[in-house]
From TrEMBL:
Belongs to the binding-protein-dependent transport system permease family. This is Peptide/nickel transport system permease protein. Keywords: Cell membrane, Membrane, Transmembrane, Transmembrane helix, Transport. GO terms for biological process: transmembrane transport. The chain crosses the membrane at residues 7-28, 75-96, 117-142, 188-213, 234-256. One of its GO terms (cellular component) is plasma membrane. It is a multi-pass membrane protein. It is found in: Cell membrane. Residues 71-256 form the ABC transmembrane type-1 domain. It comes from the Bacteria.
């Protein structure tokens, strides 16, 4: 139990961030999309705790509601990428042959490009919007999980319990889901937890560049993009979503480090 004790504070903080994202519309003190130009660029006060933006919208409400787009989209993206890449990689490691060769060479092509550069190019081709940004990030993220799962499967492929499963007549699908994925889940989950912060930054980065969430969506990267010209006159407009990204990424990265300590104490 001792090694789990250090995990609790970070798991609690991550859980609170996720709960904030899920229930964001109910927690926002004001309508994040209500415009009032008479209140434009109002500094933080007792009414607008984080001030207002150029359209008079409450920044705190937009940061809270923006967590739903940024955090929830990143979590869904992470789950989709992890499941797809892990299943494909595990199947390649289990079966080998031509399938393994083709998929691994394809993953080499994707891994040859810098992640963000490839994501920008893919998002530009797919089209704007949060869905296009998500598809672009899936394209650049699945190979790392496929490579990891394949390597883990190669280390256990000749284990006696897998040989016994084959001799009992189990199909590749049954072996994959009943015996393989459960035994390689630990390192994959740790990698996913460590990668969540990266996905949050990449998704926000695409929105910052105009390739993700479109205005007037309250998304952290898009909010920073809209406020970058006011960094000197109204710094709260860009600092609030920036701090939200910083805190979220830091919490999830520290959670990933603690999970790695739990699953690999050596």
């Amino acid at each position: 139990m001792g090694r789990y004790r250090g995990l609790f504070p970070y798991a609690l903080a991550a859980g609170l961030i996720i709960l904030l994202a899920v229930f964001a519309p109910y927690l926002a003190p004001m309508d994040p999309y209500a415009q009032d130009l008479s209140l434009a660029l109002r500094p933080p006060d007792s009414v607008n705790l984080l001030g207002t933006d150029r359209y008079g919208r409450d920044v705190l409400s937009r940061v809270i509601v923006g967590s739903q787009i940024t955090i929830c989209s990143s979590l869904l993206l992470l789950v989709a990428t992890t499941v797809f890449g892990s299943v494909v990689g595990a199947l390649c490691g289990l079966r080998g042959g031509r399938l393994d060769t083709i998929v691994m060479r394809l993953s080499d092509v994707f891994l040859a490009f810098p992640e963000m550069v490839f994501a920008i190019a893919a998002a530009s081709v797919i089209g704007g919007g949060i869905a296009g940004a998500a598809m672009a990030l899936i394209l650049i993220s699945w190979p790392k999980y496929a490579r990891l799962a394949r390597g883990l499967v190669l280390t256990i492929r000749s284990m006696p319990y897998l040989e016994a499963a084959r001799m009992s007549g189990s199909s590749d699908r049954e072996i994959l889901f009943d015996h393989v994925l459960g035994n390689i889940a630990g390192p994959i989950l740790v990698t996913a937890a460590l990668n969540l912060g990266t996905i949050i930054m990449e998704l926000a980065g695409l929105s910052f560049l105009g390739l993700g969430a479109m205005p007037p969506a309250a998304e952290w990267g898009a909010m920073m993009s809209n406020g970058r010209s006011m960094i000197q006159t109204a710094p709260w407009v860009i600092l609030a979503p920036g701090m939200a990204i910083f805190v979220s990424v830091a919490v999830f990265n520290m959670l990933g480090d603690k999970l790695r300590d739990v699953f690999d104490p050596k």
